[in-house]
Amino acid sequence: MIAASVSRDSAACKAYNSGSTMARTLESLVPGTPVFAGSTRVGDVVAVYAEGEARIAELVIVKWAASGDDVAVPTTEIESIDAQGVQLIRREADQYKDLAPFDVERFPTLRKIA
Prior knowledge:
Layout: H1 2-15, H2 22-27, E1 34-37, E2 40-51, E3 57-64, E4 70-74, E5 78-81, E6 86-88, E7 110-112
Parallel strand pairs: 1-6
Antiparallel strand pairs: 1-2, 2-3, 2-7, 3-4, 5-6
């Protein structure tokens, strides 16, 4: 369990290292971009939010296909973004069943950036 967490944190940190394009890509995601867990399309991007005046994305809001809910996916859960869409770190859709429906009123300091 610890190894998986360290690996996930390491992958997320690499995304923001110098020369990475992922930070810019997160902020430029458009609604409707497909989101995948492994080969399963789990939903579509609805919006991207940053904390306060920060320019770095904190949450990607996804319309989750299985529930129909908009859920908040922390950007640390994103492994990559490519021509196919957003690839989440965990490979099985059911590993994300703990994501709660997103309610912007619960996050008064968030600002929509995409």
